[in-house]
Amino acid sequence: MPRKKSQPNVTAMSQADAAKTQSAGTGLPETTHTGVNAKNTKTVLVSAVLEVTGQVRFGDGTDVGLTVTETDMVLRPSDGAQVHKFIFAGSKRRGVDRRTIHELRDQHWKGAPCYVPRLCGECPICWLYGFTGTTQGKNINAKSRVLYATSVSVEEVQVGRNTHSRNQVDEKTQMTAGAAGIHEEEIIVAGVHFPTYTALVHVLDWEIGAFAHAFLENENSNRYTAASRAQGGMKFAKHDGQPLVVVDESAQGIFPLAAPKIPGWETDWKAAGKVFRDAMDLDCLKAALEAQGFSVTTNTNSTTEEANGEASQEAQGNETGSKEGNAVQSNQLILRHQDGVITVKQEDHILMTRYTGAKALGYLRQKQLEAKQKMLSLSTENFRQEIQGYINAITKPAPTSEAGGPGEQKAGEDTGDGGDE
Ligand SMILES: [Zn+2]
What we know:
Blueprint: H1 7-21, E1 42-55, E2 62-63, E3 66-67, E4 71-75, E5 82-88, H2 90-106, H3 126-129, E6 131-132, E7 141-142, E8 146-148, E9 151-156, H4 157-160, E10 161-166, E11 183-188, E12 193-203, H5 205-220, E13 232-236, E14 238-239, E15 242-243, E16 245-250, H6 269-278, H7 282-291, E17 295-299, E18 332-338, E19 341-346, E20 349-356, H8 358-377, H9 380-395
Parallel strand pairs: 3-11, 17-18
Antiparallel strand pairs: 1-12, 1-13, 1-16, 2-3, 4-5, 5-9, 6-7, 8-12, 10-11, 14-15, 16-20, 18-19, 19-20
Helix pairs in contact: 1-9, 2-5, 5-8
């Protein structure tokens, strides 16, 4: 395989190429190895309930002689009461995940070292999870396309918190209290639930897989906690043998079925779990859409759906019609459920696909393997060449002063990479 040319040539070639492969929307060169400006990207929402199985602690804050886990007050709308909850910060989950993805990348990547907080800005993970150019002497930032929501526990702090003393035992004297002295630390006990939500925006399949790899393996190997060397343990919560995991996928970023969000103030696990169970139940989903004014046809097998005639006369918002004269009725949807996979269609057009329970885990696992393949096959040089062409295009002086040029990011604007913990 011939060596790629040096940097100036790459630049010149990429700019020439850019003219040919500009994507229509942005006028910037299309990317294929990263979703940053690729065609055929998807938006994916991953909702999952994690249940503590061992002991976990989130945060390294200390009080006098006590390491504390992060908590916060939330409000209950019905009576305005304050409810004290555990917090699993999105930035913490994100930090653990990013490190795990770096490990996967580093098995094959030949580029410059890249790790939190010294991110390289030129590897596929920087262009997925984001970076701030100022740390690399570059005049660009990349926003993260993986968005981690902070998780609020279902159970209250008063029922789920315990304090343990951690002290070193001298093997000979059997005396406790090592160099650090006797030290107390708070832990979250087994059985506490954390609903987690992650949005992956404009991503390629392998990028979904990079997140999936971190999510599945960090759960599997108990890395979601401070001090994971010594404790930890979380698993996907289950109901009737099905993990409470829902993955929603849409090519256009349109999700008629809302992600199953458990209210922060909810303290009853049964009620909280029902939010996820309802999100997997065809009748509940149909009712939710009908309450919004949709006419819904359901289908639980693979045969072709038939148009729902009874709703045709109430079609609205349909002024434009379709080119063939077959009016698309904007309030008609078809819900199809087969083996844990639910699709929402309008005419023959799939708006979104929902994977539930074991099928959702299977979706993530399959994408994880795609990410591994991508990391194996991706040439560092090819990636650099493509991204350099994109960087050249976005840093080229713009014809008008309004277009996004270098140095326009305001202080404090979130690129999504600054807060990994
Ligand atoms: Zn990097």
